[in-house]
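Morning F.,

Quick status update on the modeling queue. The single chain you submitted on Monday has been processed. Sequence for confirmation:
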Amino acid sequence: MPTLHDDLSELNRYEPKKGLLSNRNIIISGATDGIGKVLAISCAKHGAELLLLAKNEKKLTTITQELSSFSDAQHRFYPIDFSIAGESDYTKFAEYLIEANKPIDSIVLNAGYIKALQGIRNFQLDTWLKTITVNQHAPFMLLKCCIPLLELSQDPSIVFSTHACSKAYWGAYGVAKSAQLGMMKILANELDGDKPIRVNGIDPSPVRTKLRLTNFPGINPEDYAAPEDVITPYLYFIGPDSKGVTGMNYKINPKFIG
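Structure tokens below.
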């Protein structure tokens, strides 16, 4: 089992123990599809209590009911559209968290948005702003809401879903993901104090998600890993086995860019 002093290059082979996340209160954004949905199911199976964030309330209701069918924990959801949420929306969310009166043990910043791959010169301003807002500003605002309650946890962690895509035609998404990685590294340094919160990222590389398949329609979906294939590194960084590990951006497929 990997520890702080081990080589984490094979973290995709990590085997979480039963009940790894028992009694842990975990928030997952982008929880109704792709990696977020599969991660929510896996976290619940490992004993976590979940708060799921996404914009589609119907999908949130469905996944929460699915979790409750095999988990006794009290799972909750909070609908929020990151593309249009303003300061007042995040203030309401922060108040909701405070009213729940529970420490937050982990938050996984997984929500993402991209309309289409296109050159910078062709970007419309509204598309640029929406992409930056969902992928860059929303994680910042969520963390402002959550860090005070993360500080109340005995073993808190923040996990980013990152993406190395600083190449042609990734546009605003590539810019936002580069900024997100910078924020992860800055936070890892800022939050490594008397009440440390470990901050790490996971770059899952190509995964068979709606975002990927929409933008690469000519590629056989079976050539991509399924979301289920990339979950165990998330469990490692969320759970107690990664205690003391911070500032790492783990790439599941280090040879792949974009």
